[in-house]
Amino acid sequence: MSERTAGMFSGKPCNGRVLIMDDEADIRKVVRLTLEKAGYEVMEADDGEKGIQEIQRDENPILMDAIICDIRMPKINGVEAIQYFQTQFPRVPLIVMTGHPDVDMATSFLQSGVVDYLVKPVDSKKLVETVAKAVDSKDNSFV
């Protein structure tokens, strides 16, 4: 299922719902605009705590199709947020996006099931491909 209906909210066809967590407003804006142009509905949070609140806001948090998470954020950092999401919402695919790459951390995340580890600035095409791969992996986990 590559196209879903976000009709509950907007009535427009939608490729999926994505939560972007990053403490840099400019990064969130670029990611949001890129993904919206590609047909995704995007929610934003400027730290892990607000990201957790955002995914719990709706009646059914499983409606989130992918989460993009920065690592260095105030309050609840990306490592803590990712651990929370993997425990509470294991079927929601996670993508790490960081400006501070770390090979050991990347390896650890990928081994723990994170879909991809992206380094900022992320190429728009790579971002859209990665999100599409994440959304498809969620769809296939229900088969």
Folded structure, characterized:
About 35% of the residues are buried. Helix content is about 45%, strand content about 20%. It is globular, with a radius of gyration of 14 Å. The chain has about 140 residues and is of the alpha/beta class. Helix 2 (about 50-55) packs parallel to helix 3. A hairpin with a 7-residue loop joins strand 1 and strand 2. The protein has one domain (about 15-140): Rossmann fold, CATH 3.40.50.2300.
- How many helices in DSSP terms? 5
Would you identify the CATH architecture? Answer: 3-Layer(aba) Sandwich
- The percent range for helix content is 40-55%
CATH class descriptor: Alpha Beta
Strand content: 15-25%
Give the C-alpha Rg. Answer: 14 Å
Q: What's the assembly state of these chains?
A: single chain
**How many strands, what sense, and barrel or not for the largest sheet?**
5 strands, parallel
User: Structurally, how many domains make up the residues?
Assistant: 1
Separation, N- and C-terminal Cα atoms: 11 Å
* Structure class: alpha/beta
Mean pLDDT: 87
Order of helices and strands: EEEHEHEHEHEH
Question: Which strands sit side by side, in order, in the main sheet?
Answer: 4-3-5-6-7
Number of strands: 7
- CATH-wise, what's the superfamily? Response regulator
Basic shape: globular
Uncertain parts: 1-10
CATH topology: Rossmann fold
